[in-house]
Specification:
Layout lengths: L1 H9 L3 H27 L3 E5 L2 E3 L5 E5 L5 H5 L2 E4 L4 E6 L2 E6 L8 E6 L15 E7 L3 E6 L7 E6 L2 E7 L7 E6 L5 E7 L5 E7 L5 E5 L4 E8 L5 E8 L12 E7 L5 E6 L8 E6 L5 E6 L4 E6 L4 E6 L7 E2 L5 E10 L2 E10 L5 E3 L7 E8 L5 E8 L9 E6 L5 E5 L4 E8 L5 E8 L13 E6 L5 E6 L2 E6 L1
Parallel strand pairs: 2-8
Antiparallel strand pairs: 1-3, 3-6, 4-7, 5-6, 7-8, 9-10, 9-36, 10-11, 12-13, 13-14, 14-15, 16-17, 17-18, 18-19, 20-21, 21-22, 22-23, 24-25, 25-26, 26-27, 28-29, 29-30, 30-31, 32-33, 33-34, 34-35
């Protein structure tokens, strides 16, 4: 048999011999790759994050081929345990934590062996990587008492670390940090008198124009939870039409992976819709705005193209609960010739509307944020009875009973804007000292403080500053 093959091979031309030899070499290499692939198994090409991560970072693992997804998900372990949901993009697994990763701690991710690809090959060895979760920082605008105002960033545990991160000659109107803590979208005054949107990379310090608004004010950028969209307020000046400025409307700006805008459209197709104050639900499936025309909070659900109106004349949007099923919002009450506010509660599934406390109670509530678990709210409150204080103070109020306990009560201060960090244990707040009647009161400026709800510590991190916000 071998002799016969040798004689047949010898009768081939030199060119045919070379071609056949090359084909046999390719076949041998292919068989070797297949055999080696079975021996090596499915490879993990990339795992992230590595080194340091943000409290809101997603965990991703990229495999060398498409996987049998349940076999991977059953073998993934995160320590300490963090609840989350699985998403897939081809061979890339994304584990999206529902709650914030523990700030200041190390997180270990382990994928046990045995996860299979769609071809039946397996991950043969355990895969493990670790990272440390950085503590959130505080961003704010300063100085409060003069222009231009720029964004500053500070490690709240070290107030001396405060440093300026935008250097606008015309000044910053407002800003919002991306959910992953790596970028800052901000509204900047330009030399022509309008307001543009820009994007700052917090790691490199590079910034670029995100959206030019030559005949409009584009302000209040607000990131979607997945970081792919920015809702913002847009007021057109209509200079060419000589019609005067249009009412504010909310628009949506879509971004690609590089941070460039790829689409820009109004949130509502109705050209008569008037809205402002966008707030995203935690999962990004809903967005709430204040609808001036309808006189209430309009909650739009993207998947069903459904709208829900929560009547309120207070003029601001409330806060979604951690699971996104409820909204706490301020509502106005006119009693005995005086106007005051109370906190309403809207169940977005049943569409039932109740109140946190009896509207007839002698209270004036302005703002509320949800604590972890959705059982309590921190509320800015001013009592209207013997407990009256000139400025609002902060109280923890049980959602089920309305019972209130003091969180920060200091009559020397008015407590304004505040928000909780992603872990919902740290409260950053803007405080304004109450006037004392002395000549130096003209120099009173707002201050930024951080309150730890666990150890009840209260630390000032900035003076002559305002509009604080957490950067995860």
């Amino acid at each position: 048999m071998i002799d016969r093959l040798q004689r047949a091979f010898s009768r081939l031309t030199r060119f045919d011999q070379v071609a056949l030899g090359a084909m046999l070499a390719v076949l041998a290499a292919l068989l070797a790759v297949i055999a080696l692939g079975d021996y090596v198994g499915v490879r993990v090409l990339r795992a992230a994050p590595q080194g340091e991560a943000h409290a809101t970072s997603w965990i991703t693992i990229q495999f060398s081929e498409e996987m049998d997804r349940p076999s991977v998900e059953a073998r993934l372990h995160v320590t300490p345990d963090v609840a989350g949901s699985f998403q897939w993009n081809g061979p890339i697994l994304i584990y999206r934590p529902i709650e914030a990763l523990p700030a200041g701690e190390s997180v270990a991710v382990v994928l046990d062996p045995g996860a299979e690809s769609l071809t039946g090959r397996q991950v043969l060895a355990a895969q493990r990587f670790e990272f440390t979760v950085r503590r959130p920082q505080v961003a704010y605008l300063a100085p409060a008492n003069e222009a231009p105002q720029n964004v500053w960033l500070v490690d709240f545990s070290d107030p001396a670390s405060a440093h300026q991160i935008t250097f606008s000659a015309e000044g910053i109107f407002n800003f919002d940090a991306s959910p992953d803590g790596t970028r800052l979208a901000y509204a900047e005054h330009n030399a022509s008198g309008t307001v543009d949107l820009r994007l700052l990379d917090l790691e490199s310090g590079d910034s670029h124009l995100l959206l030019a608004c030559p005949d409009a004010d584009c302000t209040t950028p607000t990131w979607s939870p997945d970081g792919t969209q920015i809702a913002y307020e847009r007021m057109e000046f209509n200079t060419d039409l000589n019609l005067g400025a249009s009412p504010t409307r909310v628009w949506l700006l879509t971004l690609d992976g590089t941070g460039a805008a790829t689409a820009n459209r109004p949130l509502f197709s109705d050209p008569q819709a008037i809205s402002y104050g966008p707030v995203w639900s935690p999962d990004g499936g809903r967005i709430a705005v204040y609808d001036s025309r309808s006189g209430g909070i309009m909650i739009y659900t993207f998947a069903s193209d459904d709208e829900l109106l929560i009547p309120t004349q207070q003029g601001s949007v409330g806060a979604f609960s951690p699971d996104g099923s409820r909204m706490a919002y301020p509502n106005l009450l006119l009693a005995e010739g005086l106007t005051r506010a109370y906190i309403g509660l809207a169940d977005l599934n049943s569409r039932a509307i109740t109140s946190l406390t009896d509207p007839a109670d002698p209270i004036d509530d302005e703002r509320a944020v949800w604590e972890a678990g959705g059982q309590t709210l921190i509320v800015a409150r001013r009592y209207q009875d013997e407990r009256y204080t000139p400025g609002r103070q902060l109280y923890r109020v049980a959602v089920a009973t309305g019972d209130a306990k003091p969180v920060i009560v200091n009559e020397d201060y008015y407590h304004g804007y505040f928000e909780l960090d992603p872990g919902r244990t740290l409260l950053v707040l803007q405080r304004f000292p109450q006037p004392t009647g002395s000549p130096t009161d003209t120099q009173i400026t707002p201050e930024i403080w951080v309150y730890n709800t666990e150890d009840e510590s209260l630390v000032q991190v900035a003076s002559n500053a305002f509009l604080p916000q957490w950067v995860p």
